[in-house]
Design goal:
The chain has six helices and twelve strands. The protein has helices spanning about 5, 30-35, 85-100, 155-160, 165-190, 195-200; strands at about 20, 40-45, 65-75, 105, 110-115, 115-125, 130-140, 205-210, 215-220, 225-230, 235-240, 245. Strand 5 and strand 6 (about 115-125) form a beta hairpin. Helix 3 packs antiparallel against helix 5 (about 165-190). The chain binds biotin. Biotin (BTN) binds next to helix 2, strand 3, strand 6 and strand 7.
């Protein structure tokens, strides 16, 4: 269980104050979206009855096997909040690696992959100047417990490493890493994080389609957009959307 008495002694930064935990809720996003919490408020649940993903998709979990959390951020007005997708994705991959000894990759903008399988997804929602960052991580699910009809094949930390992981330890690591990466972004924008994002980029060099744009993924631009190079050498920059990888025969 990720109740306060287990998790709060592990917290090392300002994220997690207040720490709001429930055995079940509709969505951890809703706990933060409709209240005036301070930056760093965190909502965690063992199970969501209406967990939501990007593009209106549902986010399914297995009770007490996932990490389901939302963190409230209050970035400066006018800041490019769409870049937070990348900041949160990077922090999530780094925290997973630190706890599980893995080598997580990022599929732009923010899916975290282990061994080509999606183990974490991120959803950003805004309300009155606040951004609620929802993070779902498949931690201890066995293969039969992860959803099987997903766009990107789903995995879990356990499926990649072969053993179960301490969710409280992962949560504490994630909140600290997220706080550090967020502070860096607030101070210096995306630029200082670009080398780490590049290093984890799972799409670079692959043929992709995003909406009506097709070509070869060629990295992340300094403003966070996905760079796509076309056959004729011209390039496009994509600000949002779902990336489809083209499968060659
Ligand atoms: C995606 O990849 O589509 C994003 C998934 C985000 C899921 C998390 S789980 C915690 C938080 N609460 C929700 O309802 N969604 C996010």
């Amino acid at each position: 269980m990720l109740s306060g008495d287990r998790v709060m002694p592990l917290l090392r930064g300002r994220f997690g104050g207040p720490y709001l935990w429930s055995e079940e809720c509709r969505s951890t996003q809703d706990v933060l979206l409709y209240n005036e919490w301070a930056e760093g408020a965190v909502s965690v649940s063992e199970h969501q009855t209406g967990g939501r993903g990007r593009e209106g998709r549902p986010w399914e979990d297995t009770t007490a096997q996932s990490l389901l959390l939302s963190v409230l951020l209050r970035p400066a007005p006018e800041s490019p909040v769409e870049q937070l997708s990348l900041v949160v994705g990077l922090a999530t991959a780094e925290a997973i690696d630190a706890v599980a000894g893995t080598s997580g990759e990022l599929k732009w903008p923010n899916d975290v992959l282990l061994d080509g399988r999606k183990v974490a997804g991120i959803l950003l929602e805004s309300s009155r100047g606040a951004v609620v960052c929802g993070i779902g991580i498949n931690v201890n699910q066995a293969e039969a417990e992860v959803p099987d009809r997903t766009r990107v094949p789903a995995g879990s930390l356990r499926m990649s490493t072969g053993w179960e992981h301490d969710r409280a330890e992962l949560l504490a690591e994630l909140l600290l890493t997220l706080e550090q990466r967020y502070d860096e972004w607030c101070k210096g924008g995306l630029e200082p994080l670009l080398p780490q994002l590049e290093r984890r980029d799972s799409l670079r060099g692959f043929a992709v389609t995003v909406g009506d744009v097709s070509g070869m993924a060629a990295g992340i631009a300094p403003d966070g957009r996905l760079r796509i190079v076309h056959m004729d050498g011209t390039e496009s920059f994509v600000a949002s959307g779902e990336v489809q990888e083209q499968v060659s025969d």
